[in-house]
Design a protein that fits this description.
heterodimer, A: about 90 residues, mainly alpha, 3 helices, B: about 525 residues, Sodium/glucose cotransporter, globular, disordered C terminus
């Protein structure tokens, strides 16, 4: 009874071909759509973009509603990346 | 003491205790005498359960109590929690999927398991494990601060028994049900929290005369506070705000409890979908933060803590107590208390798994069977919780608070070994280890020079390091984790070619592991991880 994971470092002994190996083996799959993930960082991390009180909405200063607004934007972008790359490895 | 509030909190507590024990039977596949079962809930959680589990795990009672308290005391700076939790998910979206895949293919339970297998280095695995455990311990202790704040707001002061009883009960059902207990209780927790937050952000402003009045009151009161805050940031706070938000986001998914939540998901797809849906919690957190201003507008005075001094962490419970009818305040308090139990359970399980897999097994008992691993983990989860309880009871809360600030700074030092390791084997294992040592050492050196005027501490008083230390004529400060992780990475990169003559470890993983999905050969059989045969036989 092996106490260590039985997979060898190479994995070549595995008689069953992994679907993920076809075409993707040994490299990182990067799709340009992944760059959408950077947009929330650009939108929220530099405070100089939004560090002001006007205009306010419903009494809430710009600083607060601007950052809260980025939550749905970020969800949308990340979900878009998820849907586009779904099933890919 | 308010009898109605107390009664409702007790009723909710008893209810989740029942849920916690019943959870042992929930979706149970095989024997609980295996870490995949006890420590990862059978690696079977779908989108909904994962969403509640990870959300319940990351948005803790301490967050609910401390973020509004920070906004109450320091104004705009406290709102960093919003960009922090916005950027965290896009950042980890890709890496988390790779970690899930390789962990399922190789049977890894913790991030340190992965590091040891990937870099072929027990030493690096232990470094990652110890970092995770040290960073998690004060976090567990802080969950008790959340419960304590509720107890004080109900009007029970100078009495530790409610807290002790709550933790003994929590320890009991975590021991028997493992990760299934917090996963099931998380549904109750978040349902209650969402109800409370939605009611609070509509009802309290309605009572106080609208958001206009709330922000006006805050604008007047903030400059007079010791931190001289405002509704917006001072120019000198930009760097602190950005680096704190970005650094906290990088650190978030390196914590053992966050990794546990990710690895308990049933598929790679579930992980990716969750990364896109989890920011919904940030909306709740953003509105919660505004409770700090509502407390200012309502003229809330913090209740006294166990040390007899006003404790700013009580402002949210006191606000609820002042503004809500007793029955609803009771529900809100119950929500906060349960909100402490869920993360405390997950954190103690994650710390226990890390100890068992990455310290006990490689160094103390290489021949430990899966059954023994599960048993050790269960016992360590008890030790961890009682250790945290002792810190709160006998050292003090401030110690846990200071230490938790350090937690994010030290956990980020495992980023090169874990995250870079998911993508490349270029870095030499010894270079990564030296980088880690240097990152931690420089962090502590910088932390030494951070005073906290509020508590009269000269050292280790915060996580923001004044740039004036290096002769720059400014009042700006930087979150220590960012420069120190850069030092860590640079050192690892410079040393890698220099150490090329030293042997590299054997990589246990295969490139295809990083793309594996549930149902693939060797992944479909995964709940039966290597060694499981001994359990089912």
């Amino acid at each position: 009874m092996s106490e260590h994971p039985k997979h060898s470092s190479s994995g070549h002994h595995d008689p069953i071909p992994h679907p993920a190996q076809s075409g993707s083996r040994g490299r990182i799959n990067f799709r340009p759509v992944n760059l959408l993930l950077l947009i929330p960082l650009i939108g929220t991390l530099p405070p100089m973009f939004y560090n002001k009180t006007a205009p306010s909405i419903g009494g809430m200063p710009f600083f607060y509603w601007y950052q809260l607004l980025w939550i749905p934007i970020s969800v949308t972008l990340t979900y878009l990346v998820y849907r586009t790359t779904r099933g890919e490895r | 003491m308010n009898g109605v509030e107390f009664g409702i909190v007790i009723a909710l507590f008893l209810f989740v205790t029942g849920v916690g024990f019943v959870a042992a039977r929930w979706r149970r596949a095989g024997s609980l005498h295996h870490l995949d079962e006890w420590g990862l809930g059978g690696r079977s959680f779908g989108t909904w359960v994962t969403w509640f589990l990870v959300g319940g795990d990351l948005y803790t009672a301490y967050t609910f109590v401390a973020v509004p308290a920070l906004v109450f005391g320091a104004g705009a700076l406290g709102f960093f929690a919003v960009p922090y939790t916005i950027v965290a998910y896009p950042i980890v979206f890709l890496a988390a999927a790779r970690l899930w895949s390789v962990a399922h293919r190789q049977g890894y339970v913790t991030a340190a398991d992965f590091v040891r297998g990937r870099h072929g280095s027990n030493a690096l695995g232990v470094a990652v494990a110890v970092t995770g455990i040290v960073a998690t311990m004060p976090y567990i202790a802080l969950q008790m601060v959340g419960i304590q704040a509720v107890i004080e707001a109900i009007g029970i002061t100078n009495n530790h028994w409610p807290l002790i009883i709550a933790f003994v009960v929590l320890a009991a059902y975590t021991y028997s049900s493992g990760l299934r207990a917090p996963a099931l209780i998380a549904f109750v927790k978040d349902t209650l929290i969402y109800i409370v937050v939605i009611v609070a952000v509509i009802y309290i402003p309605y009572k106080l005369g609208g958001y206009d009045k709330i922000f006006n009151a805050a604008a007047k009161a903030l400059p007079a506070k010791p931190s001289k805050g405002a509704l917006t940031l001072h120019d000198t706070q930009y760097l602190a705000y950005s680096t704190l938000a970005f650094g906290s986001a990088l650190a978030l998914f390196l914590y053992p409890h966050a990794v546990t939540g990710v690895l308990a998901a049933k598929s790679r797809d579930t992980v990716k979908r969750n990364m896109s849906l989890l920011p919904a919690y940030s909306l709740m957190l953003g509105f919660l933060a505004l409770l700090g201003y509502m407390a200012i507008a309502a003229g809330v005075k913090p209740a006294n803590g166990t040390n007899g001094k006003p404790d700013s962490n009580t402002i949210v419970p006191v606000l609820f107590d002042n503004q809500f009818p007793s029955w609803f305040a009771g529900i809100a308090f119950g929500a906060i208390a349960i909100g402490a139990l869920v993360p405390a359970a997950i954190m103690s399980i994650a710390a226990a798994n890390t100890f068992t897999r990455d310290i006990y097994k490689p160094y103390l008992r290489p021949t430990a069977s899966p059954r023994e691993e599960a048993q050790v983990s269960k016992i360590v989860s008890l030790v961890v919780k009682f250790g945290a309880l002792l810190v709160i009871l006998f050292i003090n809360v401030q110690f846990a608070l200071d230490f938790q600030l350090i937690g994010g700074i030290i956990i980020i030092q495992i980023l090169p070994a874990v995250v870079f390791g998911l993508y490349t084997r270029w870095f030499h294992r010894w270079a990564l280890l030296i980088g880690w040592v240097a990152g931690i050492a420089v962090s502590f050196w910088m932390l030494w020079y951070v005073p906290n005027p509020a508590t009269n501490h000269k050292h280790f008083g915060g996580a923001q390091w004044a740039l004036s230390h290096i002769g720059i004529n400014t009042k700006s400060a930087i979150w220590i984790g960012i420069p120190t992780v850069i030092i860590n990475i640079l050192l690892a990169a410079i040393l890698t070619p220099l150490l090329a003559k030293l042997p590299r470890g054997v990589d246990q993983t295969d490139e295809s592991d990083y793309h594996a999905e549930a149902g693939d050969p060797a992944v479909g059989a995964m709940p039966l991880s290597p060694g499981q045969e001994t359990v089912t036989a």
